[in-house]
Amino acid sequence: MPFLELPQNDALLRFEPGQVTFHYLVSTPTSPTFVWAQEHASELASSLLADANRSTSNSTSAQAHGGKVELDPNFPIILFLPSECFSVAHLFSAQLANRMLSSHFNLIALDPRGHGLTKDVPIVQTAGRKYDLDIKAADCLDFLDLLLGSKTWQKGIHILACSMSGLVAARMGAAWPGSFQSIMITSPILEEETSFMVESFQGIKELLEESWHTLHSNPTNDAERRPSEACFAMDSCAKLPGEVVQGFTFRWAGSESIPHHISSYLSRTWLERLVLHEKGLEAARDWWFDLYWLRRRMPDASVASIRCDILVVEGDSDLPYDRNVGQEIAALFRNARRVKVEQVANAPFLLSVKRPEELSRVICEFLEIKEGQEETPTQEKMNLKLKLGMGERMLGLDAEERFELVKVYAPDLVADSDDDDEEDEEGHHSDEEDSDSGEGESSTDPEDAPVYRLRINSVGNAKKGTESRLSATTRTNGTGSRASVSNHLPSMPGSQEDGSGPVVRTLQETHL
């Protein structure tokens, strides 16, 4: 499956072999992973339902023959780097599934530490340093070196990075001079935050710490309970502080709303990793917070070594700063071969989510991809043979990966935690009965295994013939929370077709 282990390197906070294992997905012009996922999301959802009726051994055997997509040496690469706590698929879903980009580039969607399906890594106290921008950049470079077997790619490598990852991309360009054709930064932030932003982030940190202490010092969570009961009780009463929700929503979308499936994803992720986590914000420092606290300007000599093309794209409304900062960021790259700054009119900060078509257009123009650059008849015939195997490869992805794509490209098929307030309790009691009977247990504690929740009627309506396979409930290895998030980020209401209803089937789900 598309997971890649980085080598042990204590100086880079990798204390054991395989401790840092990156999740990634690849799309090529002949195997357009994200275009296929967008067009066949209901098939991916149906495959999750079908998995529930298959034995683990059969499922594993099927996956062994699919999933992995090899890079095409005939095309350049775009490496996608997400910001802050987003998974790369949620943040760049539109660009990854853009037909122009998908037909002209190898697309590599990478989840760094603590993002998406890549786990965070605890930093030992004796390490002597914290997880900062330089280490994140070194992680990404080691990933590329392992994946490509080289620091260069004959057809060229481009980086598309959002927000904080734009600063990471700059460090990558400085560390590997000449390796990258371009660095494209969307939704830029400053190298060093303003005092207002530092104070705001400190306030958010204090609110989260208060929520963590309130939850974990609750006397109702006594040690005499069964572990499953204690975990369920804690998850059920946990919630994010409203000020945190509102603060980040305004930072990213201003007066607009965040799409419902993204707000739900972020709410679940933050609740699990910032409030429910046994180490609270101390653990979050190891993949997110220290990137803020430890930010420093790049040395002039390092910036001067960056000579590739530079694109900076930003909105012009409801920005996190009192001004546009695109020109300031672009001015850092004084030796760049070409520098372009674009502003998207009447757009808030997070362009990839709030103005996806406009951002894709700017990127295609910058990369000089033009409409009409289609395949020749010979290429089309040859590529058709290759694309015929896409279904098998996609259904060969891990269940976690398939569900991640369903959440992004068919969010209406994913049950929200508010669909049925009693669903978690019913599933909880059912799990206890299964545990008592000893039947159907996996090799891991069911309470520690993640679950999938799908609107089964919606899946049935989207792809006929799945209703007969909806009776089973399964769990697999993984970690996660069954938290019911009671205060989602403000979002657009999820659409719901007639007949979809709140009928929910719990299956294996990611940790989100």
From TrEMBL:
Biased composition (Polar residues): 468-498
Coiled-coil parts of chain: none
Annotated Acidic residues bias: 415-425, 432-448
Spans annotated as Disordered: 413-512
Highest taxon listed in the record's lineage: Eukaryota
SUPFAM superfamilies: alpha/beta-Hydrolases (SSF53474)
Entries under Pfam families matching the protein: Hydrolase_4
UniProt domain Serine aminopeptidase S33: residue ranges: 94-217
Name this protein carries in UniProt: Serine aminopeptidase S33 domain-containing protein
